[in-house]
Amino acid sequence: MIKVYTDAEFDELWDKGLQTGEITCHFDDVETIEKWQHPLRKGLCNSIPLCQGLRTDILHLEYPEIYTHDYYGDEDYPMTLVFRSAGVLKEQIFGINEDACEQPGESYLFYFPPGTREIEQKMPGQNLSVRIRLEPHLVRLLSKGQEDYLPCLLKPFLETDTPSPFYQSLGKITPAMQVALHQLLNCPVKGMMRRTYVEAKTLELITLQFAQMLQDITPGEQSVRLRKRDIECIYQARDIITQDMTNPPSLIELAQQLQLNERKLKQGFRQIFGTTVFGYLHDYRLEQAGQLLMTGQMNVAEVSYAVGFANRSYFAAAFRKKFGINPKDYQAQWRKKSA
Predict the structure, then answer these.
(1) pLDDT given for residue 224 in this prediction
(2) What is the pLDDT of residues 132-147, one digit of tens each?
(3) Which domains are delineated in the chain?
(4) pTM
(5) Neighbouring-strand partners of residue 109
């Protein structure tokens, strides 16, 4: 069975680890460093506060075995930009994205308010990620005078600090981002200059990521301006297709249901989610299939049908393309880990 830690259990584990020396915590004027030499995990967690409203966390940990942490977020920085270099993290973020999965070599952006329930599943092996924490007001500060060039996903922050929550996969980490990440992780200076160096690289990563989000939109799509109601409709479109993933409406039916122009729906959906309406649904079905296979309560054919694939061979090929393993072997691996 996979061990599940609640907030209270994890706090107790933390306190005990500090007493035994399996966990140490060092504070200085630049950063907080947690060092773990514990059966649960080993490695370092560096947290570096930067300019007002910005913090960079570097997590370099090894998990000997799989475990789950069920907690309610109390993060002071509700927006997070993630660059994952190694390891896999599965997350269930209640009411926002209940099948999120961070993959190595990819980046993610999410925003949800404190108090949101999260279940994180730590996977065995090496894990390395840089997590840039932002307060919402920083989006306005960084884009001042250039608001038209702000990625559509972030434009609601121009009006409010509490827009609709979201979790967005941003795709592959580009070579330019990889260079900045390598420099950040191998900072050549110490003391107060380390903070200055890390802040410069953090702002560089934010800039590169926002620029990439704009480049992912074709010239024709970039000209589409989305009002607040349009954005709300596009999020509603996502909810409609995922809630009825086995029998979703056609694009025309979806546009009519939302009372939104079909062209604006298609191009706006790509601006916000980085893919087409049915490209998003295809990926969602595969993520759901992975979750169902993990439970072991259905065989591969039943899972294929349950998530909306009529052709089992096509499902197996699509699953293998996404996860790098066929569904039968994926399920067998999880049964072995859970035994």
Answers:
(1) 64
(2) 999 988 888 888 887 8
(3) 3-215 (2.60.120.10), 219-274 (1.10.10), 280-338 (1.10.10.60)
(4) 0.67
(5) 81, 168
